[in-house]
Amino acid sequence: MFKAPYDVRQLKLHRDARGDLFEILRFPDDSIPPAGYIYAYTINPGARRGDHYHERKHEWVTCAAGAFSVLVEDKDGNKARFELSAEHPSIVYFAPYCVHAVLNEGKDVGVAISYGSSPHDPADPDTIMKFIA
User: What residue segments make up the domains of the chain, in order of their start?
Assistant: First the structure.
């Protein structure tokens, strides 16, 4: 089970001549809500994305290609930074009210795979912008 306000877990990398494989989320094993959605996005070199939190949504993110940093800040202002890469897979969890951002300080595009516990609804937005210094 993932712990709030944020948590990071190393993932087991399976590597052979065909390539790499790692399991990202095991819904029943980690009590992850099944009604959400999976999405992918890129982080270009020098780019930053996020700098927001959600009031209801839980999110998980991992790196499928390249590398990037994940910045988090809890409600009490405690901050942490995690380095994600496809070479050393791990996953970061963000509870509601946990501010998060991703930053690519490398030379290659980073590819993120994320799961959100509820789909984005433009009629009922759940994204509150807040910059992490």
Answer: 6-10+27-129
Q: Which residues lie across from 38 on neighbouring strands? A: 115
Question: Could you read off the pLDDT of 12-71 as tens digits, one per residue?
Answer: 999 999 999 999 998 888 888 888 999 999 999 999 999 999 999 999 999 999 999 999
CATH architecture of the domain covering 6-10+27-129: Sandwich (2.60)
Query: Omega of the bond prior to 28 within 30 degrees of 0, cis?
Result: no
